[in-house]
Amino acid sequence: MDQRLTKFALLPEAEIGTAAIDRTPTASGPELSSAVELRDVRRVFSGRAVLDGIDLTIHASEFVAVLGPSGTGKTTLLRLLSGLDRPDGGVVRVPRARSMVFQEPRLVLAKRVWQNVVLGRTDGIARREAVAALEEVGLATHVDAWPRTLSGGEAQRVALARALVREPKLLLLDEPFAALDALTRLRMHSLVDQLWQRHHPAVVLVTHDVDEAIVLADRVLVLSGGKVNLDLPIGIAKPRDRADPDVFALRTRLLRELGVGDTP
Prior knowledge:
The chain has helices at 74-82, 113-117, 124-136, 152-164, 182-199, 210-216, 245-257; strands at 6-11, 34-45, 48-59, 63-67, 89-95, 98-101, 170-174, 202-206, 219-224, 227-233. By secondary structure, the chain is α/β, with parallel strands linked by helices. The protein has a domain at 3-101 and 197-257: P-loop containing nucleotide triphosphate hydrolases (Rossmann fold, 3-Layer(aba) Sandwich), CATH 3.40.50. The chain is globular. Residues 1-6 and 12-32 have low confidence and may be disordered.
């Protein structure tokens, strides 16, 4: 592989005055008009292209859900966007300010909740920022709690607060609700939607849950065979009711695209 063909660049952030590593113009318009730009991106493991020539633009403040069977590159895509991995070919362009929430909260058990929100910082300003973030996710009374005392849903709220306190332009969510019970998951859906509308980051949510994608996203991607097989905007107003004929039709289409067939 000719490494000159592989680029990983950070989009410039006007608010903090940083410069782009790659200022090559793109078809999406001005450099700050999009939060993510992928051009002919490939990622290969053991000779198999998990991502095979992906082209993708995600606009600022857009909420995108990524669906697909296991092994189709959903988490690999998030890892490339987060900078935890590098492509084997193509160009990945993302904002400098980005955060990721994983399937597990990944809290440091030896630190209190507020310290987990602002890891690496212990000054008074950091604590105030942590308290404000925890208030936003409904954990104002848990500021000085220990992680072991939290429920699964509360721990994921801390993880969300930790992501949001960094004021990301791009928020990456890797199945963050998969381990939660059904009722807690619904509450988390509502919280994430509220936080997205309040802070306006671009969001990329990886999920296996079609209903979750429909409830939260305004655009759904389906990955298969290393490609984006479907790129579908959702024009249905929120909140979305599963009984709505348009929602039902969308759900049926996505399930068919995923190979599930006519599922009630």
